[in-house]
Amino acid sequence: MIRLQPEEHKSLSQYVYSLCAIVLDESKGYLIENRLAGLVEETGCGSYGGLLLRAKSDSSRALERRIVDAITTNETLFFRDTAPFDLLRHKIVPELIDRRARTGAARIRIWSAACSTGQELYSIAILLKELLGDPDRYGVRLMGTDISDDAVARASRGLFNQVEIARGLSEAQRTRYFAPAAGGWQIRDEIRAMASFKKLNLMADFSALGRFDVIFCRNVAIYFSERDRISLFGRLERALEPEGYLVIGAMESLNGICPQFESKRHLRSVFYQVKTHA
């Protein structure tokens, strides 16, 4: 593998930060090497510095997009960490259904931010299908966003290979919600139709998306600086409906940096709601 030089690390990390706000400090050299070595070899640049120069001079921005894809695409699986899905099944969705009946709300909107290749949002869709029978009766709308063009394209296709389909799904779920297809397993239309996907940089303005009853933003802000985390969650606050639910990663916490949020616990799960002022 081509080795990353210290001066290359500095310039590349600054470039990556400018694209997607991911902080790659001195301890993350291995990550740059692991994620970008293939691109260095494929493009014939010869070095990470050469890759950076090529990306900056590429007016089509195609190489820039491939660098973002490589750096940001993380391993994921269906029903990753069961606790948030138990929270959704046993607390959040029943409360939303009760609230909708009480207030006459027209729909329920759930957003999977940094959705990667779609497993999280499709897991939510499967859960809602199992729980509600016909989610359309409740006006359920699911959205997934990611900064990676490749991840969004793959999520939209809903085609998963044998390794991906084996991770997190029961045999019954695989049989019921997926169909064998060339190259793997295709999610069935009844689940695919529940979800929409689009490219989005979480550091950009996303107010045009509207407001959501539930936002899943798990294991992405851990790569941001504290300043950028505060900025992101401040904007997520404004994207939440009143009494909306924010679900973040099990190893993440908003305590001490986002005082507008109150952490709440249900069974093994922690979620956040905006504090109400009497």
In summary, what is this structure?
The protein has 278 residues and is of the alpha/beta class. Helix content is 45%, strand content 20%.
Compile the SSE list and pairings.
Blueprint: H1 6-20, H2 29-43, H3 48-57, H4 62-72, H5 82-103, E1 108-113, H6 119-132, E2 140-146, H7 149-157, E3 159-160, H8 162-165, H9 171-177, E4 178-181, E5 184-187, H10 189-192, E6 195-199, E7 212-217, H11 226-239, E8 240-248, E9 261-266, E10 269-274
Parallel strand pairs: 1-2, 1-7, 2-6, 7-8
Antiparallel strand pairs: 3-5, 4-5, 9-10
Helix pairs in contact: 2-4, 5-6
Can you tell me about this structure?
- By secondary structure, this protein is α/β, with parallel strands linked by helices.
- It folds into two domains: about 5-70, Chemotaxis Receptor Methyltransferase Cher, domain 1 (Orthogonal Bundle), CATH 1.10.155; about 80-275, Vaccinia Virus protein VP39 (Rossmann fold, 3-Layer(aba) Sandwich), CATH 3.40.50.
- Helix content is about 45%, strand content about 20%.
- The protein is built from eleven helices and ten strands.
- It has helices at about 5-20, 30-45, 50-55, 60-70, 80-105, 120-130, 150-155, 160-165, 170-175, 190, 225-240; strands spanning about 110-115, 140-145, 160, 180, 185, 195-200, 210-215, 240-250, 260-265, 270-275.
- The strands form three sheets. A five-stranded parallel β-sheet has the order 6-2-1-7-8.
- A hairpin with a 2-residue loop joins strand 4 and strand 5 (about 185).
- The protein starts with 5 loop residues before the first helix and ends with a strand.
